[in-house]
Design goal:
single chain; Alpha-Beta Plaits; 4 strands; alpha+beta; 4 helices
Length: 112
């Protein structure tokens, strides 16, 4: 494992920024007819938000739990709330969400 110095820690901590984590969960209408089409449009919207630089990381979850996905937004809680309230799956009751403000390190990404 790489050795991390105190100086490195101080430098990295000084670079943190505010982000928001969204946790999506199954909503009350997740099993209703047409839900798959709504989820498809939810995904399309996520790709657009990603392309616009607002949604930095998208992680669908498929472990059979009621958690449907996690996203990290490059926006504040107020903006993310507006974005999520307009999500087609949220509007249809297929998904519900929680927003958690967090701090992270710019440039962090998933490996290819």
């Amino acid at each position: 494992m790489t050795t991390i110095t105190d100086e490195f820690m101080r430098q990295m901590i000084s670079k943190t920024r505010n982000y928001c984590i969204v946790i999506l969960k199954a909503g009350p209408k997740k099993n209703e007819e047409g839900a798959e089409k709504i989820i498809w449009e939810h995904g399309r919207r996520n790709f657009a938000l990603r392309a616009d630089g607002v949604l930095s990381i998208v992680c669908p979850i498929s472990d059979g739990s009621n958690v449907a996905g996690v996203g990290i937004f490059n926006a504040d809680v107020e903006e993310v709330t507006k974005i999520m309230d307009e999500d087609p799956a949220v509007k249809a009751g297929v998904l519900i969400y929680e927003i958690h403000p967090c701090r992270g390190f710019p440039g962090s990404c998933l490996p290819e």
